[in-house]
């Protein structure tokens, strides 16, 4: 994993931890978002924080398809490396 990928993974985990009001370690131990207090409100809050922090617009369908912290990290990392021009 590149330094950029590690930094993205760390930041995504920190943002999700803040939204879920849990330590990032809890997300590493159980990366399935549904195992946490993940609902439509926290999902939208996470989306807003991720988009604001990384200055990007994520595809809502792809975002909603993400089931784990790693899924969201991959989505953000992929968009950062291959923006769609939005």
UniProtKB/TrEMBL annotation:
PROSITE patterns: CARRIER (PS50075). Transmembrane segments: none annotated. Residues 3-80 form the Carrier domain. InterPro entries: ACP-like_sf (IPR036736), PP-bd_ACP (IPR009081). This is Carrier domain-containing protein. The lineage of its organism: Bacteria, Bacillati, Actinomycetota, Actinomycetes, Micromonosporales.
